[in-house]
Amino acid sequence: MSPLILALETSCDESAVALCDAGGHIPATAISSQIPDHQPYGGVVPELASRNHLLRIRPLIQQVLRDADVRLSDISAFAATSGPGLASSLLVGSTIAKSLALACGKPYLAVNHLEGHLLSPFLGKPGGIQPGIALIVSGGHTLLLHLRGPGDYEILGRTRDDAAGEAFDKVARMLGLPYPGGPEIDKLARSGNPAAFDFPRSMKSSGDYSFSFSGLKTSMFYLLPTLGDSAAGRLPDLCASFQEAVTDILVSKTLAAAKALGAQHISVSGGVSCNSRLRALFTERAAAARLTLHLAAPAHTTDNAAMIAFAALQRFKNQQFSSLDSDIDPNLSL
Ligand code: KG4
Ligand code: ZN
Fold first, then answer.
1. Does 153 lie in the same domain as 29?
2. Is the CB of 121 under 6 A from ligand 1?
3. In angstroms, what is the span from residue 100 Cα to ligand 1's centroid?
4. Could you tell me if 14 and 159 lie in one domain?
5. Is 3 exposed, middle or buried, given 0-12, 13-18 or 19+ CB atoms closer than 10 A?
6. Number of structural domains found in the chain
7. Which residues contact 173 (CB under 8 A, 6 or more apart)?
8. pLDDT grade, residue 1 (50/70/90)?
9. Does 328 have pLDDT greater than 80?
10. Ligand 2 centre from 88 Cα, in Å?
11. Which atom of ligand 1 has the smallest separation from the CA of 181?
């Protein structure tokens, strides 16, 4: 039987389990989103998240094994996200994966959540992992990297303040939209005019690969009171204009890096890469620059276990197993 990895993702508010085979295919995956549980609080409540992971992860493991028609004894290695993320949530997944590894006498693989996102655009793709420029845009991170190969990454730049997803969530909150704000802004923006308001493109032409989104958030904060009662009616225009500024900065910087480093491939991952305008703009500008674009499949953009299983597979191939005594790291970097 071909090697089979079982991976758990519990770094934030999604409890997820997936299997990955030696070819990088995902025979089964299951996810339980906690978004409705945290929505009343306007953000993720750490203790609530870890308690929910504890309740949900075992049924999800059973579901995945059933769906793929395999037993625990068929699993070659157990993997879990070991950071970055919420400490109490990371502990649930990693402790369960280590316990299963110990009980089944199989290796344990600790996976960096960011590496999961980074490699997710190549999940299930026939060409495998392609070296090039990679953009990770999630709720907690905005990172531009030079991906040279599995395990060989150079960080070119990151955000100096808010992550792109954080900016979406904070602006959505200002506009009275529910958490998480990214998908809400995306939806409303479809019927809005992206040129209605001129939001700043902070650091777009700074000449380096750093990002900054807090100025954009501040512009929205000062703009809203000037609109008075008309603000509600202008929601689609506000969303479309804000989204245009964020996506323009992200796409411009990524393409500039590809040009400077002579890369042929660009890849985009993380929750914000689900954004319809970001996907359209990348598709348009990558084609114009004759670059090959790898977008994470929509189901693999927000947190999921398939990407953790796929990243674990790269380590499994090189027998890079983790110690059962290894700790989680809420601030783990790539
Ligand atoms: O990758 P992810 O699930 O979690 C982290 O690792 O942070 O990303 C979540 C982020 C949230 O900020 C959410 O608002 C954003 O991704 N997001 C979006 C969209 N879908 C999710 N942002 C913009 N447009 C979307 N369609
Ligand atoms: Zn994530």
1. no
2. no
3. 30
4. no
5. middle
6. 2
7. 42, 179, 181
8. low
9. yes
10. 16
11. 14
User: Does residue 334 belong to any structural domain of this protein?
Assistant: no
Contact 210, 203 (CB under 8 A): yes
Q: Is the CB of 116 under 6 A from ligand 1?
A: no
Residue 233 in tokens = 């009616």
Q: Is 324 left (phi over 0), alpha (psi -120 to 50) or beta?
A: alpha
CATH number where 141 lies: 3.30.420.40
Buried b (16+ CB within 10 A) or exposed e, 60-70: bbeebbeebeb
**Residues of the domain holding 263:** 126-295
Q: Grade residue 215 by pLDDT with cuts at 50, 70 and 90.
A: very high
Q: What percent of the chain has pLDDT over 90?
A: 89
Whether 328 is covered by a domain: the verdict is no
Q: How far apart are CA 279 and CA 141, in angstroms?
A: 18
Cβ–ligand 1 contact at 274 (below 6 Å)? yes
Q: In sequence order, what DSSP letters do the residues of 70-110 get, joined into one string?
A: --GGG-SEEEEEEESS-HHHHHHHHHHHHHHHHHHT--EEE
DSSP code, position 37: H
Radius of gyration over every alpha carbon of the chain, rounded to an integer in angstroms: 20
- Both 243 and 132 in one domain: the answer is yes
State whether 137 and 270 are in the same domain: yes
Total residues found in the chain within this entry: 334
Residues 29-46 pLDDT 10s:
999 988 888 888 888 888
Q: Are residues 212 and 233 in the same domain?
A: yes
Q: Are 82 and 111 contacting, i.e. CB atoms less than 8 angstroms apart?
A: yes
Are 258 and 83 spatial neighbours (Cβ–Cβ below 8 Å)? Answer: no
> Is residue 166 within 8 Å of residue 43, measured between CB atoms?
no
Q: How far is the CA of 13 from the centre of ligand 2 (A)?
A: 10
164-185 pLDDT tens trace: 999 999 999 999 999 889 999 9
